[in-house]
Amino acid sequence: MNYKAPRGTYDILPEDQAYWRHVIEKTRRVCELYGYEQIDVPVFEQAGLFERSVGESTDIVEKEMYTFLDRSDERMTLRPEFTAGICRAYAERKLHGRPQPLRLFTIGPAFRYERPQAGRYRQFYQIDVEVLGSQDPAVDLEVMQVAWQIYEDIGISGLSFQVNSTGCPVCRPGYLDTLRSWYAQHLGEICGDCTRRHGQNLLRLLDCKNEPCRTISEGAPRIQDSLCEECGGHFERLRSYLDDLDRPYEVNHRLVRGLDYYTKTVFEVWAAGIGAQNAVCGGGRYDGLIGMVGGPETPAIGFASGIERIILTMKQEGIEPPDTPKPSVFVAYIGDEAKEAAVVLAQELRTAGVGTAALWEDRSLKAQMKQADRTGAAFALIIGEDEVRNGVVMLRRMADSTQASIRRSEVLDAVKEGAS
Ligand code: ATP
Ligand code: MG
Questions:
Q1: SS3 402
Q2: pTM across the whole model
Q3: Phi/psi at 408 (nearest 5 deg)?
Q4: Which ligand neighbours the alpha carbon of 54 most closely?
Q5: CA-CA distance, 140 to 148, in Å (whole number)?
Q6: Which ligand has its closest atom nearest to the C-alpha of 63?
Q7: Chain mean position to CA 178
Q8: How far is the CA of 97 from the centre of ligand 1 (A)?
């Protein structure tokens, strides 16, 4: 039987790890730089949490969730995103009792049953950043800046923000009425999905990715013209902060989140290389969500970014991540007696914190040196019968193949010195 990785999943092989490491390290550093603390939530949660918080009429809940009955017949779902779990933790662990706002980030896999294609998988990794407990537009800006700085530090260029405001329960209903009557005159021209959305999730008509629907939505009434004073003021402040920082942004009236608890700011970051269909990050404000999953009414904002899409962008832009760490030393031996000495030496070096590789397997010296080259070690330490007898070791510098015999007791100092 030949087993295969499930469709839409992939293996991150050793040669790809440098990319992953680079993205994750930069993300951690930037999050810490902005004073965000790490949180981790379960990979699966009660299905109802996502149905409620992501929303019944979204693509995710309608057709993308991995939901299953566990052995006690409880309905569970592999997390399709992080916000729901973090809000659940906020309410359940009473994180609202801590000094607010709470600035959090997490990194891990998420699962959606999607049609796999470049940058779109069924198991994918997200960076997720959330601020809970503030409605200040400067916090919106800060969260957007975290995303921006992560990409910038990774080395991605050609970035731009797409921003919009989706209003609030005060101003959105009026806008929805306007939008509904406008779309009523275009029902013949929109796709089947959109016809369905017209009845249940009107805002989603605006971000349909079908070309004919996009052309139509371009002419639709714009929410900016319907914002209440508070939402309008909030959006204006955010834009002036973006101007202050000289960030390129475009007000994109088709950028929406279809649900009531999403409020005010929505944003995406686009990278020049991967285009509008593949935003590297999406986020926004959700002032109504925490109250809905059992916590106190709490304003919040966050974003999520797919690591695969960041790496795709890196590759398209030719950004090379730094090498993953290599062992400093490779221990080689000839003969049984020398092998014992080599086993002891290798362990001694590792205990002293010197990265040390070896092949074992009793291969020829040539094969061992080939392997030493492959591991990227700076030095090979070679032990034969003579070396054992004389209490010395042959130290070979891999870069130029020069070698010298040194006392066994001086090996540690020699490789430590050579490595620095
Ligand atoms: P898209 O419109 O591309 O489907 P989305 O609106 O479903 O994105 P969000 O739910 O906002 O995306 O998720 C945030 C980010 O997670 C996206 O900007 C993208 O980088 C990443 N992402 C979403 N779905 C996938 C997937 N199936 N595979 C890889 N990355 C994904
Ligand atoms: Mg999607």
A1: strand
A2: 0.94
A3: -55, -40
A4: 1
A5: 12
A6: 2
A7: 37
A8: 32
Q: Which of 161, 162, 138 is nearest to 151 (CA)?
A: 161
Cα torsion 319, 324, 325, 330: sign:
negative
Question: How does pLDDT run across 264-316, given as a tens digit for each residue?
Answer: 999 999 987 665 556 899 999 999 999 999 999 999 999 999 999 999 999 99
Q: Is 95 helix (H, G, I), strand (E, B) or coil?
A: helix
**Residue from 120, 122, 268, 307 whose mutation best tests the ligand 1 pocket (most atoms within 8 A of CB):** 120
Ligand 1 pocket at CB < 6 A: 81, 112, 114, 119-121, 124, 126, 278-282, 304-306, 308-309
Closest to 301 measured CA to CA, from 262, 349, 332: 262
Task: State how far the alpha carbon of 144 is from the alpha carbons of 162, 265, 374, in Å.
Answer: 11, 10, 42
Q: Which residues pair with 46 in a beta bridge?
A: 76
Residue 242 and residue 274: Cα distance in Å, rounded?
Answer: 23
Please state the atom number of ligand 1 nearest to the C-alpha of residue 268. Answer: 18
What element of type H or E holds 271? strand 263-271
| Closest ligand by atom to 312 CA | 1
Overall average pLDDT of the 355-383 stretch: 97
Distance 52 CA to ligand 1 centre (A): 19
Average of per-residue pLDDT across 304-333? 95
CA of 90 to the centre of ligand 2 (A): 25
The atom of ligand 1 lying closest to the CA of 304 is 14
Round to whole Å and give the CA distance between 140 and 129. 11
What's the token pair of residue 297? 């009414």
pLDDT of 212 over the 80 cut: yes
Per residue, the 3-state secondary structure of 272-295, as one string, reads: CCCCCCCCCEEEEECCCHHHHCCC
Measure the CA–CA gap between 374 and 381, rounded to whole angstroms. 15
Q: Whose CA is nearest to atom 19 of ligand 1?
A: 306
Q: Which of 81, 162, 309 to mutate to test the pocket of ligand 1 (most atoms within 8 A of CB)?
A: 309
Check whether 145 has a pLDDT greater than 60: yes
Which residue type sits at 410?
A: E
